[in-house]
Amino acid sequence: MPAKSGSFNDMSTTLAAKRTALKALRAEVKELATKVKAEKTIAKTLAADARAARKVAREAKAAARAEKRVARIAALEAKLLAMKVGPVGVAAKRAARKPSPVTIVEVTA
Residue 103 carries which DSSP code? Predict the structure, then answer.
């Protein structure tokens, strides 16, 4: 009788080769999963760093706004004080603001 094409020795060799290939694939999948996990960890760290940087920028912007607000209030208070002093005070304030010749005349009452 002629030998069958799917003899026992051929099947065991093929099965062993398939098992070896399957082990290699499993090892590759495990390695890729480890790489993906590491990349996700790195991405989370980068996202946390970006959030921290945005928070610092927001705080700096808020501090700058507060400084502007304080400066604006101080300027308004100075203007109010100059108006209370009278025309001489207003002229002196303008002289301090604009670099132009200003003559201040004292008014005697």
Answer: -
Domain ranges of the chain: 8-97
Q: Helix, strand, coil: what percent of the chain each, to 5? A: 80, 0, 20
- For 13-22, letters b (16+ CB in 10 Å) and e give eeeeeeeeee
pLDDT digits (tens, 9 = 90+) for 27-52: 999 999 999 999 999 999 999 999 99
> What interhelical angle do 87-97 and 8-85 show, nearest 10?
140
Comparing C-alpha atoms, which of 82, 79, 78, 88 is closest to residue 109?
Answer: 88
Q: CB neighbours of 78 closer than 8 A, spacing ≥ 6?
A: 93
44 CB-near residues (< 8 Å, 6+ apart): none
Q: pTM here?
A: 0.47
